[in-house]
Amino acid sequence: MRVYVEAYGCAQNLGEAEALRALATSQGHLLADRPSEADVGVLVTCAVIGHTEDHMVERWRELSSVLPHTVVTGCMVPLRQERLTAPGARGTTHLLPIRAQEKLPELLRSLPGPGAVAAPPVGNAEHGGLLQVRPKVPPAEATVHRELVLAQGCTSHCTYCFSRLARGPLKSTPLPHLLAQARAAIAGGAVELRVSSLDTSCWGEDLGEGGPRLPEAVRELSALPAPKDFRLRVGMMSPQTLSTISEPYFEALSSLPRMFRFLHLPVQSGSDRVLSAMKRGYAVETFLRLVARARELVPDLMLSTDVIVGFPGERPEDHESTLRLLESVRPEVLNLTRFSPRPMTPAARWEPIVSRVVKERSREVTALRLRLARGRMERWVGWKGRGVVTEHGPEGTCVARMPNYLPVVLPERRPLGTWLDLTVRGARSTYLLGES
C-alpha cells in the first residue's frame, strides 16, 4: 500500500510520525508525498487548544473525503472521538491509540488492497482518531533532524493541560531503545537529534530508584559513534522536575560538545498565585534560580520559555508580574498562548476572563517579546564560529544553527547537513543574518 503520514503540533507528535513512517516501510509499504498518491492516510493529531482541535477536525474531513482509508492517532484519539464522525465522508476512519502506535502494521494488513471494498472501521469508542493538513517537516529536512521520543505522559498535574490527560502517566522509553533510535537516525544522515516529550526532565523517574536520568541519557547519546558529526537538542522541561537534576544536567549542557546549548523552560506566569492555580508545582523563584544557574554555567545559552495569558482568575497585578519577569529574564524565544479552556480539565470549569482583556494582555506581551528578542539577537552581531545547515528557506536561502541553536539565515543555499564557518552580520527579532 501507499501510505501518507501527516503530523502537527509538538515535537513529540513529529517524532511519532517519523516512527509510523518507519513502521510502514519496514513492512514493505511505500510512502506517498501527498494524499492524492496514497491508499491510506495517517494523521497524528494535536488538540492543545480549541482552535487547533477545530483545524484537526476540518483536515480529517478533507482527508476522509479523498482517501479510501484514514488512520487517526495522537491526542484527539483518547478524549475527543465524538468529533470524528462525518456523515457522507467516503473514507473509512480507523482509530489508533497513542500507546498502540506500534500496531500500525497490523492495522494496515487488515485493510483491503487498492481498489477493494473498504473494510469495517478499526478501533472503538475508547480510542479516538483525527487528521491534519500538511506535513510539518518537509521530507528532505526530516532526514537531517530526527525526533527521539523520550516518553509518553508526564508526572505533572497542570489544571489546563489536555495533552497530559490524553497521554496519561509517565512511561519512559528505556535507554537501550533510545540509543537504538539514535543509531538509526545517525545512520540515516541526521545531524540534529531532537530529544522530545511532554517533559524531558522527568524522564527515568519511573524506571526504578537509582536508574538513569536525563543527564546520563544525554551523555550516552552524545557518545555514539557517527560517520558525520551531529548535535542533540533537548526539548521542553518543567522547572519542578529539572530542579531534581539541574546540576548534573547543566554540567552536561556546558561540557558535551555534541549538545546544542539550548534550554526550553516554560514559566507560564510571573505570578505565584496563578502558578498555584495552574498546579505547576513550582514558584517563580524556582524558575529564576534555574535560569540564573544555567546562564552561569552556560554563558552562551539560548533560552526559550512559554507564557499563558488570560488564565482564569489572572488579575492585572498578575499580568504585570509576568511582564516584569520577562523584562528581567529576557529570553531569546518566547512562545505566547492565550488561555483556551480544554474539555475535561479543571480550568475549563472556571470563570473566564473577558476576551477583550485577554487580547489586550496578549498584545502587550507580544510587543515586549519583539523588543526583548531584538536586543538579545543584536549582541551576536560579529560572532564567528561553526554552524550546521538544517533548513532551506525561500529565494535560495538557507538556515544554519549556531552551537546554542540560534538560527542564522544565509543568502545562498547550501546542502542540508553541511557544517560551515559562519560570521553573523545582522540581527532581526527572531533570527540572525550571516555569511559563510
How does this structure look, described?
The protein contains 14 helices and 18 strands. Helices cover 34% and strands 20% of the residues. The protein is globular and about 60 Å long. The strands form five sheets. A five-stranded parallel β-sheet has the order 2-1-3-4-5, sandwiched between helices. A five-stranded mixed barrel has the order 14-15-16-18-17. It has a three-stranded parallel β-sheet with strand order 6-9-10. It is an alpha/beta fold and 436 residues long. Strand 12, helix 13 (316-329) and strand 13 form a beta-alpha-beta unit. The N and C termini lie far apart (44 Å). The protein has helices at 11-26, 50-66, 76-79, 104-110, 139-142, 162-167, 175-187, 214-222, 239-242, 246-255, 272-278, 284-297, 316-329, 355-378; strands spanning 2-7, 30-31, 40-45, 69-74, 92-95, 145-149, 151-152, 171-172, 192-196, 231-234, 262-264, 302-309, 333-338, 384-392, 398-401, 407-410, 419-427, 432-435.
Short characterization:
This protein is an alpha/beta fold and 436 residues long. It contains 14 helices and 18 strands.
